[in-house]
């Protein structure tokens, strides 16, 4: 299932979410302009590599990569998929939190997601990059704030394609179930398939918890409480 839009109206322009979208896209365009060897060096230098966090000499740089890794992506499908989710779900979360709180929440979710990946990674020498941990935090907040929202999705069944509205709690719940099952499977067979499942899990869980404390007090969820 691919999300296309939700039915929650934003009351304020999502300034921070727009800046995050543009920043990620610009960084990716810069990435693909680099020679392959230079790009690989960038990923290894600024991606989250777990072993750095267990070496006192490398720890300071490891901490830095918890931030820098959020703005690097590994390909077109990687960045487009992440930005699609951020575009659909981020504006309403920013609306509920306010601009500055949303920025702090986003970055904190990404950092905590990276830390989760460090402790559960099946290979301590492979770099993890991408905004998906932070965006998983956004999904966690959306789940807390707008569980009864409806998400328009494209569904595929053999040769048939359909467009249906799915409740947010069901769509995001199924997404999270996939992350957990894949994360546990990656531990059992010691392989991740190139996806930082545990960053997604950690980002979502921490995002869901932190969302309680980041909501603007004056924000009223009239849209789904009536």
UniProtKB/TrEMBL annotation:
Query: What membrane topology does the annotation report for this chain?
Result: Multi-pass membrane protein
Q: Which Pfam families match?
A: Rhomboid (PF01694)
Coiled-coil region: none
Q: Name one GO cellular component term.
A: membrane
- GO molecular function terms listed in the Swiss-Prot or TrEMBL record: serine-type endopeptidase activity
> Which keywords appear in this protein's UniProt record, sorted alphabetically?
Hydrolase, Membrane, Transmembrane, Transmembrane helix
Kindly give the InterPro entries that the UniProt entry links to this protein: Peptidase_S54_rhomboid_dom, Rhomboid-like_sf, Rhomboid_protease_S54
Q: Give start and end of each Peptidase S54 rhomboid domain.
A: 63-216
Q: Where are the transmembrane segments?
A: 12-30, 100-119, 125-142, 154-178, 184-211
The superkingdom of the source organism is: Bacteria
Family stated for the protein in its record: Belongs to the peptidase S54 family.
Protein's name according to its UniProt entry: Rhomboid family protein
Q: Organism, per UniProt?
A: Dictyoglomus thermophilum (strain ATCC 35947 / DSM 3960 / H-6-12)
